[in-house]
Amino acid sequence: MRNFIFHSLWISVVCLMCSACYDDKGNYDYTELTEIRIDTTGLDRPIPAEGTITRFEKMVCAPNIYYGDKLVNDDADAFLDYVWTIYSTVGLGGSEDDRKIDTLATTRILDAEISRAPGQYIIQLTVTDRKNGWQQYLKVYRSVEGTIPSSGWMVLYEPANHPGTSDVGLVYNELVKKNWLSEDLVYWDLFSSSNGAPMEGKPLKINYTITALPTSLIVIATDKGMCAVHEETFQTELTLKDFFYEPPVEGALTAYVQCGWMPTPPSFGETVIYNNNVYVGGNGTRPMGVPSNGEYGELAPWLCLFHPTSGLNTVVYDNTNGRFLGVSGVKVAPLIAQAPTAAFDVNNVGAEFVKGDWGTGNMEYFIMKKDNAFFFARANFIVPTLPMMGTIWKDITASPDITEINTFAVPYMGNYALYGANGKVYKLFYTMSDVAEELWRVPSESGDENNDEKITCIELQKYSLAAYMSMGIMPNVNEVLHVATWNEKTKKGKLYQFRIDAIDGSIKSEPKVYDVPGKVKSMGWKFTLMER
């Protein structure tokens, strides 16, 4: 019975097939395809099927294209589209970045910088016939090796083409790298090219960290979180959760600091303000513990850099109640009672925090606002039992553009401070004057006072762990001024680097000028283990 059913079904299938063939009249429309041929033979610049290139090296490929028997390299009437792409050989089995396909060019000739992180890649040319969608391919295999120089100047910016995110650039020249004899080198979009996309959040802080871990990393902090990237490849190695035992689930990151003066515990650690809570990392290791507790209002976006080897982890400023507070472990509390002879009482400042930076004498420097007046202040938090922490309180309300201040820097040595406002940098000799003077202004061909190019960040050449400056590892300490600007109308940024006098900050050279693809908000120096 089973065989009968099987044979019956088989006969039915055969009959249906024959019927289909019988009804087929053979009425088809055939389109003859014109052959597309990608020819790489006999070229002046050969295109090897395999090879090795260095990261950020420019790759040039110019194959001959035949459409039928006709060479159509420069034929604008040829119905052909070209797309050069790059993707990892790991493909679907790898990470999200491995699966990413980047477009390098949409022309026959490839002339593009290869910025993908070190790895194995396929670079592919796809030629498409617009008449019928027929495609032909050329694939070459390249091993990309990383050769980013070790030490240099880091630039953290909000990309013009991706607002609300952050990316990183590096600048190499004789000002920021010892024994540099080559031409200047500049790299942009290092984070996105290494990780597939810019980092979420507007830029807050970039810092090269020294930790008790085997490899030092570059920490990038934005208002939406933080990560750490490899010091040479810029690929992400730590995400937000890796910095905390229990990472914050809401709120904004407003301050990050690597505090201390030596690269070994217990003199240094990392500290952040996240969702108005203070998180402290102890003894130079990650992760950070539970948030500190205490009675305070809205904290200013600032953390004290220098702290003692015992006693305090850092100092914060309570903007609501106008006072500094000490942070010790998980406790936020007032500092020791201050003497009446102190320049100001750190426990009762009664002013609004505007800007802050660390500098000369390992002390902290501030611009404060009280009512409609502005003040320059200095405090010494290194000794937590000191009854005279406030050392300078000076009214600088008469200083030009002080109401427009948006960036502030003080040197590692020297009794002056700088601030940026609109398109000018001002210098305040705080030991001799209470009125700042103009140091530099953005260039304007027309001389227009209303230049749309505004200063967004200024930094003096120093490093947060002072031991590396005193040991001579950092070049040109206190002798370089970095000024970043942004033009909101043109959506273009610039970086100016000047040689300055190590003591009084006067400008001694014309600037080196670089175009930046975004708005700079933080800058800093990096180096590697070999230079320590």
* Strand numbers in spatial order across the main sheet: 2-10-9-6-7
Briefly note the structural class of the backbone. Answer: mainly beta
Oligomer: single chain
* Helix count from the secondary structure assignment: 3
Helix content, binned percent = under 10%
Which stretches are low in confidence, meaning pLDDT under 50 for 5 or more residues running? 262-266
Radius of gyration computed on alpha carbons: 31 Å
Q: Termini separation (Å)?
A: 88 Å
The pLDDT mean sits at 87
Count the beta strands.
37
- Tell the overall outline: elongated
Which band does the percent of strand residues land in? 35-45%
Largest sheet: 5 strands, mixed
How would you sum up this structure, described in words?
The protein is mostly beta strands and 532 residues long. Helices cover 6% and strands 41% of the residues. The chain is elongated. The chain has 3 helices and 37 strands. 39% of the residues are buried. Strand 16 and strand 17 (225-230) form a beta hairpin. The chain starts with a helix and ends in a 6-residue tail after the last strand.
Concise overview:
With 532 residues, the chain is mostly beta strands.
